[in-house]
Automatic annotation (TrEMBL):
Name of this chain's protein: PAS domain S-box protein
Domain PAC: 80-132, 203-259
Keyword annotations: Phosphoprotein
Gene Ontology annotations of biological process type: regulation of DNA-templated transcription
Taxonomy, superkingdom: Bacteria
InterPro entries per the UniProt record, alphabetical: Bact_StressResp_Reg (IPR051932), PAC (IPR001610), PAS (IPR000014), PAS-assoc_C (IPR000700), PAS-like_dom_sf (IPR035965), PAS_fold (IPR013767), STAS_dom (IPR002645), STAS_dom_sf (IPR036513)
Residues annotated as domain PAS: 6-77, 133-204
Length: 389
C-alpha cells in the first residue's frame, strides 16, 4: 500500500470513527473535526475549520477549565483526560469525555493538539438517575416504618434497617451474619419457621406468615411477615427479602375490643329480657320495643327461671314501653302468659293502652288474664291479693 493510500485510509478511519475527533492549532483554532462530531454538533466542515474552538463550542463557564487543559497539553508528553461540555448548533449541551494529546514536530516544537472524545451525555443521565434511585431506595430502607431484612440462602442476616432494630432490639452490626432461628425464633416454633423458610425459597411470589418471635430482651411478640425470594437472571434464589411488622399491641387491642363486644352483647341480652323483683311474691317484666321470636324465647326463659327460683305468685307483663302491637307480638305475649301459668304463677298485664287494646280486638286476640292501665295498678292488685292470700 502506497503512502498516499495509507494516508487516505487513516483519514477515512478518523472521519468515520464512532468517537469525536478534533484537532486544534496553538491558537485554539479548529484545524480538523471528523464527520461524527460534525454530525452530532450540526455543522459542516467548512463552518468550523479555522474557527476559535472555545468560542464556538464551549460554554463560557468552561473556558477557564479549557485553558488549563491546553496549558497541561503543551507541557505533557502523554495523554490527558478531562470531561467538559460541548455546545451544538441548537445550543444543547453534550457532556464529552476527552482524551487529549499534543503532536510535536521532529525538532520537538509544538505542532497541534488533538482530542478523541466520547459523548457520555446519556450515560451521565443514566448514572444520575441510577444514583437518585439508589439514594431513594437507601432512604426508604432506612426510614421505612416496617422492618426490612435481607437474608442469604442459609437464613442468615445480610442487612436490616432501623425499624428491624427497634422491633427486635439487635443493632444492624449485631444482627449481620446471625441465623434467623437463633436470633429471633423461640425453640417451640422453630420447626414451623423452618417449613415457612423452605416455602419461601420454592415460591415465586410473596409468602405471608404470622408467628411469634423473641426479642433481644426475651419478650415474646407476634409479627406479620411478608417474604419474597430474590432471584438472579437465571432464576436461581440468591437471597430473601422480608417485611416485618410487630402486631402484638394491635392483636391485644383487637382481643380487648372483642371481649368488650361480648360483654356488651351479654349486657344487652340481659337488658332485653329484665325481670324485676317488685314485692315479695311479685315479679315484673317490662317489655320495651319490638318482640321477635328470638327475643320472645329469651324473655320467656328468663321469666320462667325467675318464677321458679323465687316462687313468685304473680308475674306482671308491663307493655308500657312496647312500640307496637300486632298479631305476632300478641301471639308471643299469649305464649308467655300460658307458660307462666304452667309454672304456678298468675300473669297480670299492665300498660295496655287504648291503641293496643283496639288492635287486640281487631285481631280477635283473647287475653284471658287481668289487665291494668299501669304497672302501679297491677302491683297494687298483686300486693292486695298476696296479703289476702
Amino acid at each position: 500500500m502506497t503512502d498516499v493510500a495509507e494516508h487516505d485510509l487513516a483519514h477515512e478511519i478518523l472521519d468515520t470513527s464512532p468517537t469525536f475527533v478534533v484537532g486544534l492549532d496553538g491558537a485554539g483554532r479548529t484545524v480538523f473535526m471528523n464527520g461524527t462530531m460534525l454530525g452530532a454538533l450540526g455543522y459542516t466542515r467548512d463552518e468550523v475549520i479555522g474557527q476559535d474552538y472555545a468560542t464556538m463550542f464551549v460554554p463560557v463557564r468552561d473556558h477557564e477549565m479549557l485553558r488549563e487543559v491546553f496549558a497541561e497539553l503543551r507541557s505533557a508528553q502523554g495523554t490527558t483526560y478531562n470531561e467538559n461540555r460541548v455546545l451544538t448548533r441548537s445550543g444543547r449541551e453534550l457532556l464529552v469525555e476527552w482524551h487529549g494529546r499534543t503532536i510535536f514536530d521532529d525538532d520537538g516544537s509544538f505542532k497541534y493538539f488533538y482530542g478523541v472524545g466520547i459523548d457520555v451525555t446519556a450515560q451521565k443521565r443514566m448514572r444520575e438517575a441510577l444514583s437518585r434511585s439508589q439514594q431513594r431506595l437507601a432512604l426508604h430502607f432506612q426510614q421505612a416504618p416496617l422492618g426490612m431484612i435481607e437474608w442469604d440462602t442459609d437464613f442468615r442476616v445480610v442487612d436490616w434497617n432501623p425499624a428491624a432494630e427497634s422491633i427486635f432490639g439487635w443493632s444492624r452490626e449485631e444482627a449481620q451474619g446471625q441465623h434467623g432461628q437463633e436470633l429471633m425464633v423461640s425453640p417451640e416454633v422453630r420447626p414451623y419457621v423452618a417449613d415457612i423458610w423452605e416455602q419461601i425459597k420454592q415460591a415465586r411470589g410473596p409468602v405471608h406468615a404470622v408467628n411469634e418471635n423473641v426479642t433481644r430482651d426475651g419478650r415474646t411478640i407476634t409479627c406479620e411477615w411478608t417474604n419474597t425470594a430474590l432471584l438472579d437472571e437465571d432464576g436461581q434464589v440468591v437471597g430473601v427479602a422480608s417485611l416485618v411488622n410487630d402486631v402484638t399491641d394491635r392483636l391485644k387491642a383487637e382481643a380487648e375490643i372483642r371481649e368488650r363486644e361480648r360483654a356488651q352483647a351479654a349486657t344487652i341480652e340481659q337488658l332485653s329480657a329484665p325481670v324485676l323483683d317488685l314485692w315479695q311474691g311479685v315479679l315484673a317484666m317490662p317489655i320495651v320495643g319490638g318482640i321477635d321470636p328470638a327475643r320472645a324465647a329469651r324473655m320467656t326463659e328468663s321469666l320462667l327461671e325467675a318464677i321458679v327460683k323465687s316462687g313468685a305468685r304473680f308475674a306482671i307483663l308491663d307493655l308500657t314501653g312496647a312500640s307496637t302491637m300486632d298479631a305476632s307480638i300478641a301471639s308471643h305475649i299469649g305464649d308467655m302468659i300460658r307458660a307462666t301459668g304452667l309454672v304456678g304463677s298468675e300473669c297480670l298485664v299492665s300498660g295496655l293502652g287504648p291503641a293496643m287494646a283496639r288492635t287486640l280486638v281487631e285481631l280477635d286476640v283473647p287475653l284471658s288474664v287481668k289487665t291494668f292501665g299501669s304497672l302501679r295498678d297491677a302491683l297494687r292488685h298483686a300486693i292486695r291479693a298476696a296479703r289476702a292470700g
